[in-house]
Amino acid sequence: MDSFLLDLRYAGRRLRLSPVFTLMAILTIAIGIGATTAIFTVFNAVLLRPLPFRDPSRLLLLTERLPKFPVLSVSYQNYMDWRDQSRSFESVGAVRTTAMTLTGKDEPERLVGQMATANLFDLLGVQPALGRPFAASEDRAGGATVALISYGLWQRRYAGASNVLGQAITLDNKPYSIVGVLPAGFQLLQQNPDVMVPFEPWAKTLPDDRSWHPGIQPIARMKKDVSLEQVQAEMTAIAKRLEQQYPIYDTGTGANVDRMQDRLVQNVRPALIALLGAVGFVLLIACTNVAALLLARAAAREREIAIRASIGATRLRILQQLMIESVLLATSGAVVGLLIAYGAMKPLIRLAATSLPGNTNPQPDLWVLAFTTAIALVAGIVCGLTPAIHSWRVDVRSALSATDRGGVDSGALRLRGALVVVEVAVAMLLLAGAGLLIRSFERLSSVAPGFETDHILIADIPVSPGARPNPAERMGFFDAVLERAAALPGMKSVGAASVLPLSGTGSVIHFNIQGRPPKSAHEFIMANYRVVSPRYLQTLGVPLIKGRFFADADRDGAPAVVLINQTMARTFFPDQDPIGQHLQLGATPEKDVPWMEVVGIVGDVRQGLDSDAPTEMYVPFRQGNQVLPVFALSVVMRTANDPLSQSNSFRSVVHAIDANQPVVKIRTMDDNLATSISQPRFRTVLLSIFAAIALLLAAVGIYGVMAYSVTQRTREIGIRMALGSTPGGVFRIVIGNALRLTSVGVVAGLIAAFALTRYLASFLFQVRIMDPLTLGAVIVLLAAVSLFASYLPARRATRVHPVVALRYE
Predict the structure, then answer these.
(1) Does a structural domain hold residue 54?
(2) Judging by DSSP bridges, how do beta strands 146-149 and 174-181 pair with one another?
(3) pLDDT digits over 556-576, tens only?
């Protein structure tokens, strides 16, 4: 222990005596550790941190599966059968996320709501911060209208008053009694609900239709002595029985069983793993650079090491001293890296936008601190290995007797050359990955969404069922909003739809074609379904391919009509003209459901830029309301000037019609587009930043090796020039050496890229893994950087005077 403390004090003193070297080494490793810590903080918060529920490893999410839709919410009837027939669960509950309008003495507010079964709180192991959860008697048709509110809503609307229990709260124009306050920060299924109400009173109003998927999400707690595989096998067997029992609705319907945490993070996990791997490579380059600095320092300290060895210091003691020095540098770099990581969190979260699940707020914690400490120790050991190996090979007699006439330490040069090869190879790998993502994102961004996104303002108008239960009144309200909005100064066109494009979601519905009834459930067909206002498609600028758009006359009482997109026309009418054909909503023909005449074919509109347009139909919202009630529309407004300048005017229009009607999420269509590609932007920008850091560190490494090489070979260069070598010849030798090291690194990097970039395949859009243009550009860039980094050392070598060099010691 005494020897360790002595070596620690000595290492600190040595580093203080070389401030430039120490600062460079600490900053270099701080960049690597800071970047790694920042990404690990996100990684830990999203993937490693357990869900805040009792024994979360046994919590499961259950979903339905159809051949064309691998993950679907569960029909109410199937949920009940799954719950009643399963034997692998301790309990099964359900939740449905919705939106509810809060009205009262303050301004109306649209809240995130959830309907939950009474047993869900016990299933999760959650106790309200105040009050109680729902009673079983309240979670049934005709039960008491009770609600739990969030901790945030309690503070915001009720100032945290303890007498909130029993107070009335008006949700969707219906009074509820507050029976509890949810814990602070409560989150379920990536949502922070403002309010929760019982599930069954709503569920009992659903039609007896197993093909109806209203967003029900069953949550189950697996028994302790049951495996996930056993649960999946049992649920598959139950799904098979239900398929035989209800062939019209459940044919082809399977059951998915996933651990809750796995399901919630499945979309973001591959990207975070890839980014953590990439930032690990940045750390490797940083360590390599510091190792090169320490190697040069060790070479300059050969005589000191030889003297210590000659007076009794063992090799292990010398190694200990060198490793303590490198670990001290790494630890100091880790402290600075933690500050860098902490400062990077807010920009990182802003960049991530909607890429992270729910309301994730990554912050450094004890796990992050432990991780940073561990990688600091590992980095210190990695940085110290190369100089330690070099020092182990120092011959004491030669070091003490040498007069050093400029001879080259070939071993040290080879080690430094190897470090440069590693840096270039890793930089090549990261640049190749970043280049592929950049090309992919460029192509994704250039995809035409099928409509014109500029100068469009969007606002969601959800109407509470309790506020306007009468369909005619509800349709009249929507008509009034659209009419008055269209009359605003600077407004060119106004429309509305039940679901907006580029939202990644849509309503999918069964339909059938007149004259082609399905022979069995295996022939049921589905398409995306939207109800829209007459001028919605024109406002977006969706082209009319054939036929006509909707007109004001296409309303309730008029002959039913429908528009289909090009993909739907090609899919279901490949050899005939769809105009004049008739469609009916529902899996099989029904007498009471109107047949809709296809009056037009419109261009394809994408739900996501990275996926093809689905088969899609459009129905006039007044006619659609007769089949499926319409309670929410998203208004789209094409403006002559800045869309956001119309925000207050539109809000005033709505509130003039109904002061209690909330206007939700006013934004531009460009914002909608940016949100739809936030995930690829997030990973592309981050990997590009890491690749740029790797390139900079590689350039520093090449410069350091070339400068060190020129210094070590000063005598040799002088002899060459004395024997007739020209400055140009010496310049080419130095540049050639740099290019040789770069070439070896590029080849190694290409091999690594071929092996590892395949993991990026799922992130790429219309770009091949081994894209020649990308790889060629990266190779040219690395060659240019190598030339730039070695230029100054090469120029310095050409200025060596032979007489001075021959006297060099």
Answers:
(1) no
(2) parallel
(3) 889 999 999 999 999 999 988
